[in-house]
């Protein structure tokens, strides 16, 4: 007898009944770029995405909430940058003000603060610089830990529900966890960018955040795209042991195998970061008429869920939520 799997795909009702993977607005984390200007500034390399004022960030968060998206993540672009990235941990910093404003207006929304220094340093790296024996510039790992911990505490004090360290410094999760606990923020979770690659897919983000390195590169602290599974497992395991509450894979699309590997290995919530370059590629192809944007985006995000993501940071969040509502 001929086996006929097509029988179970014949109608929309049958297909909906038998889907194993769900995709809904509550799975999304909406990223918001916040600067210290009063105007909205479109980002040329990311059509549809802008830098927002603090008031504009509140409105973006409100739009997300109204579409059923319960989470936002904040990235700050300060007016002043210096070698230590001091505006990252300033009590009146742009992220601190935005977090406080969003929580005041939308107390039930989950506000995640990106915890890094690259947007705040004048050299674009994720911590203060030092020179190697060979004369190359690199980040002083242990000096960065103290500043990242200070940043996380200031973000929690401002009202951030979650801090998300993205610097890829060895020991950053442990340093941040200890600092949060000592400051009375033991209830604030750490969403670790545990597996973060030195990727070409970050190009548009560096334009958006003004964080392109002025010297050297990040290959000495972000992960080698050809590093393989063992390195990914080691990084994730170290962060889990240090107290991470979430693990993240960034970028998502080229590393779905790593996402699946972490899902099979760890029982922590898993986040996929659908990064700026992935977003820009779809936008460019859609604008050229090469691809159906709606179908492509929803298929891509579904793939990340299928690979094991509990949540997805995506610049498509508002559009995807609207499309899901329509369907």
From TrEMBL:
<keyword id="KW-0350">Heme biosynthesis</keyword>
<protein>
    <recommendedName>
        <fullName>Delta-aminolevulinic acid dehydratase</fullName>
        <ecNumber>4.2.1.24</ecNumber>
    </recommendedName>
</protein>
<comment type="pathway">
    <text>Porphyrin-containing compound metabolism; protoporphyrin-IX biosynthesis; coproporphyrinogen-III from 5-aminolevulinate: step 1/4.</text>
</comment>
<comment type="similarity">
    <text>Belongs to the ALAD family.</text>
</comment>
<keyword id="KW-0627">Porphyrin biosynthesis</keyword>
<dbReference type="InterPro" id="IPR001731">
    <property type="entry name" value="ALAD"/>
</dbReference>
<keyword id="KW-0456">Lyase</keyword>
<dbReference type="InterPro" id="IPR030656">
    <property type="entry name" value="ALAD_AS"/>
</dbReference>
<dbReference type="Pfam" id="PF00490">
    <property type="entry name" value="ALAD"/>
</dbReference>
<comment type="subunit">
    <text>Homooctamer.</text>
</comment>
<dbReference type="InterPro" id="IPR013785">
    <property type="entry name" value="Aldolase_TIM"/>
</dbReference>
């Amino acid at each position: 007898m001929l086996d006929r799997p097509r029988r179970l795909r014949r109608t929309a009702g049958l297909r909906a009944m038998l889907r194993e993977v769900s995709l809904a607005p509550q799975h999304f984390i909406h990223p918001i770029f916040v600067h210290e200007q009063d105007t909205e500034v479109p980002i040329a390399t990311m059509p549809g995405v802008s830098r927002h004022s603090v008031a504009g960030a509140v409105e973006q968060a409100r739009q997300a909430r109204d579409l059923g998206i319960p989470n936002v993540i904040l990235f700050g672009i300060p007016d002043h940058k210096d070698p230590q990235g001091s505006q990252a941990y300033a009590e009146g910093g742009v992220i601190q003000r935005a977090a406080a404003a969003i929580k005041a207006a939308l107390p039930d929304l989950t506000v995640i603060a990106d915890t890094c220094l690259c947007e705040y340093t004048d050299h674009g790296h994720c911590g203060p610089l030092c020179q190697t024996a060979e004369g190359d510039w690199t980040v002083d790992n242990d000096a960065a830990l103290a500043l990242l911990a200070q940043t996380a505490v200031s973000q929690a004090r401002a009202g951030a529900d979650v801090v998300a360290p993205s610097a890829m410094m060895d020991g950053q999760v442990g340093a941040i966890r200890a600092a949060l606990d000592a400051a009375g923020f033991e209830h604030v979770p750490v969403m670790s960018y545990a597996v973060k690659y030195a990727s070409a897919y970050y190009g548009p983000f560096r334009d958006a955040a003004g964080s392109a390195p002025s010297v050297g590169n990040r290959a000495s602290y972000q992960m080698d795209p050809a590093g393989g599974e063992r390195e990914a497992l080691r990084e994730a395991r170290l962060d889990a042991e240090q107290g991470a509450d979430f693990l993240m894979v960034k970028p998502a699309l080229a590393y779905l195998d790593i996402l699946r590997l972490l899902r099979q290995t760890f029982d922590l919530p898993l986040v996929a970061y659908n990064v700026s370059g992935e977003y820009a590629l779809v936008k460019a192809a859609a604008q050229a008429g090469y691809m159906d944007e709606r179908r492509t985006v929803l298929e891509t995000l579904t793939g990340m869920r299928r690979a094991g993501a509990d949540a997805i940071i995506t610049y498509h969040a508002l559009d995807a939520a609207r499309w899901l509502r329509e369907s």
